[in-house]
Each structure stands twice: as C-alpha cells, then as structure tokens.
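User: quick one - fold this with glutamic acid bound?
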Amino acid sequence: MEFQTQPPSGYRGRLAPSPTGWLHLGHARTFWIAQQRAREQGGILILRVEDLDRDRCKPAYEAGLIEDLRWFGFRWQEGPDCGGPAGPYCQSQRMGLYRAVLTRLHEGGFIYPCACSRQDVLRALQAPHAGEDEPIYPGTCRARAGGHPPPAAAETQGPTRRCNWRFRVPDGEVIAFVDQNRGPQRFVAGKDFGDFVVWRHDGVPAYQLAVVVDDAAMGVTEVVRGEDLLKSTARQLLLYRALGWPAPRFYHCPLMTDAAGVRLAKRHDALSLRALRAAGHSPAGLRRAWDGG
Ligand code: GLU
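Assistant: Sure. Structure tokens for the protein plus glutamic acid:
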C-alpha cells in the first residue's frame, strides 16, 4: 500500500534527542537540517526529550543537551524549558498517553504478548540480518496469540519481568512512501522487518510506539531524522494506519561518519559538542566544515 503523508500546513518540526550520552556533531547536523526546514516554512520547532530508557538516560546528559543545543545555535518554540500547548515535552511524563494507545491497539487486535527473550529470538533465527536494529521476530508467540487478556496495569507500570507486546505486521505487504530527501521508499512487512515490540517487558513503551504517539499528539507535520531510521519509519506507518491517524512527512538525512568511515555514535566523545566547544571550536566553523569548506 502507498502511504500518503500529509502536506505541511502550518509546519511543525521537532528535535527528539535521547539523553543517553553527549550530543555529537552527527546529531547537530541532522537537527540543523530540521531547524532549517522549519525556518524555511515559517514553522514551529519543538524540542522533545526522549528519556524513556531510565537505565541509559542520565540527568546530566539531559541538562547538557539543552545547553549544548543552545550553544550550537538551536532555538525552539516549544520544549521542556519553555513549555507550549502540546506538553509535557519529556517522554517520561507522558506515560498515561502511551498506556491509552497500547490499550487501543489491543482492542483493535493489532498486538499480542510475547514471552520470548532477545536470546530466544536470536536462537530461533537461522541467519539474523546483519546490522538489523531489531531482529526479525520468527513468530513463536504470534501463533498462540488469541483471546489474550489486555495488558494489565502492573505490566505497563513496573520493571517486573512480564511480556513484551508486539505489533503483528501484515506479512508480504509493501509499505511504500515518498521521502522528502531520498524519494520513493519501499519495504516489505515480514521480510524487511518483523513483528516489532511496542511495549517492553520492563514496563516501558518501545521507541516505535512512543515516537508515533508523540509526533501525532504534538501535531508534527514533518519528521527529520537520520537515514538509519528508514525502516523504523515503515514500521511507524503501520502504527499510524492502525490508529487511524494521518502520518507526517518524512525527511531522512545521511549519517555522518568519522575519518575512518565509521558512523558517529555517542561513544565518539572527541566529536561531542561539549568536547568541540572545550577545544575552542565555534558553531559557525563546525557548520562550515560539514558544508565542505
Ligand atoms: N530519540 C530518537 C533518537 O535519538 C529519535 C529518533 C527519531 O527522530 O525518531 O534517535
């Protein structure tokens, strides 16, 4: 099915960092494109802090990211520091919304509980896809799904060992959309990605669910993100459809690599905005460098 993504009317874009490490130059470049696109359209830019993973998020990183973004030249009109009509702007404060949507997905028959651990999934796969973000689920618990009770309150609240909840993808269906940067995209459900987790066994909504709920609830009209998330976008389009919500447009940016061609990650501390600032670099100089001169 061809997914029509809505044309921007009253552009609303977002920066959605996770405070799991210091922001690096790769984040800054993607975010800069997001900011430029919002400015070109005379739109609103939202800062949303994606702090659901309590084991990996640190208050220091959270405080640091706002400081680093401001230093680099980012300005947003809605966010945790300045408020706005679509708040709260930290995901950890939006749990009620995610729970309500999980219940709705359950009522619609779109999800099922899965008792498999990541190890179980990897063991069941003959040839795990190299570099795959989430291994393609072999369907072990899908078969015995049916008539299961709704996600219990305890399941969505505490760090107890419960089930993951997975979204049942329509095997074989082509998920096609036009990316604003990369043009036509095409993924096959069940082949390029499998039944994906929407709620983790430790009581936390998975990225795919939280990001769709928030982009929709915050009225985001265009999502600008790294191209490592193209396949996630296809998964998210299935969630938009299941929930009957219009999908935003998508603009996927090339990822930045280091001198050895390795994709930048939070472990590249030397290229964190903090370290670059401490080393005396200016934001304008850094931007000139990525523009090639
Ligand atoms: N918090 C996510 C990240 O840091 C956001 C990804 C997205 O733009 O959807 O990668």
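One thing worth noting: Residues 94-218 form a domain with the Rossmann fold fold (CATH 3.40.50.620).
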